[in-house]
Amino acid sequence: MRVARAPGRVNLIGEHTDYNGLPVLPMALDREIVLRFQPRADRRVILRNTDSRFSSIDFELGEEIAPEAGGAWGNYVRAAGQALWREVGKLQGIEGEVSSTLPVASGLSSSSAMVVATAIALLDANERSVPLERLMDLLARGERYVGLQGGGMDQAISLGGVAGSALRIDFRPSLRLTPVAVPDSWRVIVAPSLVEARKSAGAKDAYNARVLECRDALAQGAGRGARDYYDLLSQVAVSQALARARPLLDDVLFRRFRHVVTEGARVDAAVDALRSADLVAFGALLSASHTSLRDDYEVSSKELDELVTIAEEAGAAGARLTGAGFGGSIVAVASADSSDAVLRALEDHYYSRRGGESAAFIALPSAGATVS
Ligand code: NG1
After folding, report:
1. Which atom of ligand 1 is the closest one to the Cα of 16?
2. What confidence tens digit (pLDDT) does each residue in 175-195 have?
3. Catalytically annotated residue among 18, 124, 137, 154
4. What tens digit of pLDDT does each residue of 204-242 get?
5. pLDDT given for residue 198 in this prediction
6. Which atom of ligand 1 is nearest to the CA of 18?
7. CA 96, 101, 106 angle in degrees (round to 5)?
8. What pLDDT is attached to residue 105?
9. How many angstroms is it from 19 CA to the middle of ligand 1?
10. At 350, which helix (H) or strand (E)?
11. How far is the CA of 325 from the centre of ligand 1 (A)?
12. Tens of pLDDT, residues 281-316
């Protein structure tokens, strides 16, 4: 048996920027999808899931793989299979078993981890390889198979994660990953809201609507003819872009536009704060990002807002929703000295009141996907 492992991720800052050509700052988690597999002599992919909520899958690889109805996990496996077949040609299948230490639909990218684990397992079984950055891009486009017009952050960080570091990922002018060490004295806390952010179901439409709104804002003149937000901000400063956009856009489009251009600037500032180990500045940027996602981008929820407030009041330097929103998790940063108080407050004021154990955890910046 061979084993493919692909981690989930927590995005520290840079939300809804990737599909707009602006950078992100995620780190790979120490929680992952594990795929134990062996090659098959035919084209079939047969996988069991150790989580009894998910039924087994069995399909044939090919140029055009029909999706399973609904939000099935098997569609992430099919997405990887179809993308790779189109890239490298004929492939033999695999059979095996999938397990996970990642909470599902928590905004921690279990879906992209499934895509990545499948892809590296299929490549290994077929003794094929695709250059890493090509694979990142290929799988980002491939995952759109499930109907979400997503960006490239999740596949890139799952494949390219570096232990001890967050990664600044630039998508334009070309894909580039720059590790930035997370100081030993910082703690990154992840707190799931326990409200599932199932992108394959309802949240998909809301996500895709945001993608279109961002494009509309540019097309209605705020882009000054630029192809994307990267091109726009290569020509003008954020303040100029905002001043020019305001009279051209209605209230909703202006707020979407303002989130994207200010969030891009916050990523730059956050990378500087991380490099200089300035926890206070970094935390303030996280909290500003949350406000922008809540008020301008409108992707937060009352549970996510509540978790952010609890973390901040308990002494976190800053906190924000992480991932697409519409449910999922928050991320908070705190000093090693105050992280226990933050975890305790989350337990007392959020999880206990819902009658359960705490689901919050300290995330360790981890390495990317492997197969062995
Ligand atoms: P989540 O929902 O956290 O897996 C999605 C997109 C990202 C990015 C974020 C928002 C996919 C697979 N993931 O992440 O590319 O746009 O939303 O920043 O499309």
Report:
1. 18
2. 999 999 999 999 999 999 998
3. 154
4. 899 999 999 999 999 998 888 899 999 999 999 999 999
5. 61
6. 16
7. 115
8. 76
9. 9
10. none
11. 9
12. 999 999 999 999 999 999 999 999 999 999 999 999
- DSSP annotation of 218 reads I
How confident is the model at residue 255, as a pLDDT? 98
CA distances (Å), origin 131, targets 88, 134, 136, 137, 250: 12, 5, 9, 10, 43
Q: Which pair of structure tokens corresponds to residue 163?
A: 């232990």
What gap in Å lies between CA 244 and CA 237, rounded to an integer?
Answer: 11
Structure tokens at 21: 């050509």
Q: Which atom of ligand 1 is nearest to the CA of 109?
A: 4
Nearest alpha-carbon partner for 13 in 351, 222, 290: 290
Instruction: Give the atom of ligand 1 at the shortest distance from the alpha carbon of 143.
Output: 12
pLDDT digits (tens, 9 = 90+) for 34-49: 999 999 999 999 999 9
For ligand 1, the distance from its centroid to the CA atom of residue 42, given in whole angstroms, is 33
Closest residue to atom 15 of ligand 1, CA basis: 151
Look up 154 and say whether it is catalytic: yes
Give the count of beta carbons closer than 10 Å to the beta carbon of residue 294.
19
Give the pLDDT score at 128: 97
Q: Ligand 1 pocket: which of 110, 153, 292, 299 to mutate (most atoms <8 Å of CB)?
A: 153
Q: Tell how far the Cα of 140 is from the centroid of ligand 1, in angstroms.
A: 10
The whole-number pLDDT of residue 201 equals 60
- pLDDT tens digit sequence for 151-169: 999 999 999 999 999 999 9
Concatenate the DSSP letters of all residues of 114-170 into one string: HHHHHHHHHHHHTT----HHHHHHHHHHHGGGGS----SHHHHHHHH--TTEEEEEE
- Ligand 1 pocket, Cβ-based, cut-off 6 angstroms: 15-16, 18-19, 107, 109, 111-112, 143, 148, 150-151, 153-154, 197, 199, 323-324
**280: CA distance to ligand 1 center in Å?**
27
State yes or no: pLDDT of 200 exceeds 70. no
Largest separation between any pair of C-alpha atoms in the chain: 62
Whether pTM exceeds 0.85: yes
DSSP letter, residue 370: E
The DSSP string of 287-347 is HHHHHHHHHTS----HHHHHHHHHHHHTT-SEEEEESS-SSSEEEEEEETTTHHHHHHHHI
